[in-house]
Amino acid sequence: MDREQARKRIEQLSLELEAHNHRYYVLAAPVISDQEFDRTLKELEALEREWPEFASANSPTQRVGGDITKEFATVAHRFPMLSLSNSYSRQEVADFVARVEKEIGTTMYVMELKYDGVAISLSYKDGELVRGVTRGDGEKGDDITANVRTVGAIPLKLRGDFPNEFEARGEILFMRAQFDKLNAERAKQGLELYANPRNTAAGSLKQQDPKDVARRGLDNFIYTLQGDRLPTRSHFENMRAAHTWGFKTPDPERRFIERTDNVEGIMAFIEHWGQARHGLEMDIDGIVIKVDDLRIQEELGTTAKSPRWAIAYKFQAEQAVTRLNEVTYQVGRTGAITPVANLEPVLLAGTTVKRASLHNADQIAKLDLHIGDHVKVEKGGEIIPKIVGVELDRREAGATHVIFPHRCPECGTDLVRYEGEAQHYCPNEHACPPQIVGRIEHFVGRKMMAIDGLGGGTVAELVREGLIHDVADLYELDKEQLLRLGKGWGEKSAAQLIDGIEASKSIPFEQVLFAIGIRHVGETVAKKIARSVGSMDKLARMQLLELVGIDEVGTVIAQSIIDFFAVQGNRDIVDRLKARGLRMEVEASAAGPVGDKLKGLTFVVSGVFRNFSRDGVKEAIERNGGKVSGSISSKTSFVLAGADMGPAKRTKAEELKVKVIDEDEFTRMINE
Ligand code: IVH
Known about the structure:
Blueprint: H1 3-25, H2 34-50, E1 74-76, E2 86-87, H3 90-104, E3 109-115, E4 118-125, E5 128-134, E6 140-142, H4 145-148, E7 165-173, H5 176-188, H6 197-205, H7 210-216, E8 219-226, H8 235-245, E9 257-260, H9 263-276, E10 284-291, H10 294-300, E11 310-314, E12 318-331, E13 336-348, E14 351-357, H11 361-367, E15 374-379, E16 386-390, E17 424-425, H12 433-444, H13 458-464, H14 479-484, H15 491-503, H16 509-515, H17 523-533, H18 536-541, H19 544-547, H20 555-566, H21 568-579, E18 602-606, H22 614-623, E19 627-629, E20 638-641, H23 647-655, E21 659-662, H24 663-671
Parallel strand pairs: 2-11, 18-19, 18-20, 20-21
Antiparallel strand pairs: 1-6, 3-9, 3-10, 4-5, 4-7, 7-8, 10-11, 12-13, 12-15, 13-14, 13-17, 15-16
Bound molecules: 2-(butylsulfanyl)adenosine.
């Protein structure tokens, strides 16, 4: 294939993939299989690797995750992102309409759903997504463009007749099904569940690695356009137009958006969604009512914070009253004790509720709970409902107080409560069954030792049967032991598990360090520590002052590492894992030399490279003692420019007199 053919093929594949994307994410009507889509995407990826000069920032390949962002740059909004004034009663909505009518007479109103997600402002220029910025303080927000590109419902390139410059604003959110799927995966890995879709969406968008964002599967709805040349002066019509450009906009056929010129029409919409919202595929927390005509919007203007042409009607969090039958106590992987209220089943917001979270001992004391109490349960955004009050007048004489236990309900050890923490803990780390199981489940998780065949209760079974007590025991298991268990264990499943355990011995040290479960040492920190320290032996011998010298390690993490290695039992487990052949040192990788040639230098990396992957080039910088930063500032030593570096970055580098180097020059620097 020659250069011109490559350019054409890349262009054609990009268009095809983007069209399939639109059909899948916006229209929910795919015409090809996932496999076919992946095959085409792979072809495009390969071509872009070979011809990086034709790989654009809005290529469909960026949807699976582009450059890692170290720090999100702060960007000023061209039009401030206002908030809506809230109302909780129909009277307030009627007052709003009366106010508008008094000022301008009868007019059209648009009613739409108030999505419960994270606001985003998307800038488009000549039909291409150029920037995605969070709301921030309304005046300026974080530039999270690389993460936004992974959201399938957000078009990277527009179709049809769009203005050449405008902003689309909307909400990034999780569909409930996707959120449940994420939590099911987390449950399988023994990880703590995400509390609610909104916070998880917000947290997801702040991930530094867009690949992690892509994996979460976020969604988006657009609710307004901003710009000097919008197609019509009707908000309703503009939403329709935006749909034809490729955006996911509210569907009039499903009554996601409606128009009326009277207050009855508005009330009917509120009435409808007050019930129907429970059957929606995503969370909404109210209804938004807007004046349709953009000129009238302008005439009505805004207050300091919110427009005078719109109002939000918020649904009350739904409550139900039911009987508290019992309080039980769960022991987590870290030994944290969580009280759970077991309730007489009651229907609430479309689901039957049997349990509610009580958080901690203080919460129980505050509610002054008694067994048999009639309690008010509320379902806000959280998946687990909470108890917000007690109907004292219905308490029976002689009802017993709920008393938080002093001993662990699982192993009987005296509980402890650390200073400044609300939670009680069982300190019996090495012998308390749920803690043992939880730790092993963490160890075998996908991002840790990735041992297949140990999900859904298998770890608990092996612990219960006495085959394993700690993570090192896994490596001493043999097939016959499993077969002797009977109960569903056959030649095939047993062999599979043993193979999986064997295969985990080649998992890199970074992941082993994460897997052994030192408190506060998560995935990212483990990676940093592993690369900076190099081996488990060295880490085990380090002092506090040395540890806090590591990037991203503060005193809490440092102390936690010291505490971990101070325990003989932990040291024994690490020794046994080492003896069984797990990796306890970083690999001298193929990524090139390791050293401190770049010590004290900060690089900003942009574009695509011939001999490095996107992550690889950053790794090469860090392995040679350099630092990578996300945005160019006076502190930047070099901008490392690959093919297709954005012109904005080049201008900025010139402005700040930062030297721009290419891949060859960089390779010389580290090989010198
Ligand atoms: S219009 C000037 N429409 O609610 C007001 N906002 O409190 C512009 N929201 O930050 C917003 N659904 O994130 C509008 N259909 C909708 C909305 C909506 C959710 C959020 C938005 C905004 C907040 C305002």
